[in-house]
Amino acid sequence: MPRSDVDHKLATDAASGDEGAFAAIFEAHRHEVYRIARAVTGERETALDAVQETFLKIHEGLARFRAASSLRTWIVRIAVRAAIDQRRRARRHLTVDAATEPSHDPRVKMEDALALARVQDLAAQLPGQQGLILRLRLLAGLTNGEIAKALALQEPNVRMQVSKAVRRLREVL
After folding, report:
1. Domain covering 1-95 in this structure, CATH number
2. How far is residue 77 CA from its own chain's centroid?
3. DSSP for 150-169, written as a single string
4. pTM score above 0.90
């Protein structure tokens, strides 16, 4: 069965109260939702709050989900909006913690954390939606098309914003 058919069945079953189907949706998408939330908020605790809010909104909205877009696209859109809302609520400085642990070597952790903090700081200085778009592209790993759908923008506009943001970062670095 194609992934879209599986997702549609899971969404339909979960909307009908099947908690097992909702659990399957959660397991299939939780890591990506966290990556998106972490990229947008820059902070572990705020990202976790955004993940929780995302899945609450998904659970509440499954009855209204229509297969006009994929379940993944719908979830990404909700995750981006929830993360933006959480970031606004937090109103704190962006911090980096050990949630990005690529190695057990503390020097590597520190270097990665500092690089992530630098990208977050630079992205925060970009005008308009450029910082958000850059974080979604570089830190959450979304494609230009996925970002466009999540933010209700045209894909060429996203490509242009990514290009401008990278140019600005090169100027600063």
Report:
1. 1.10.1740.10
2. 8
3. HHT--HHHHHHHHHHHHHHH
4. no
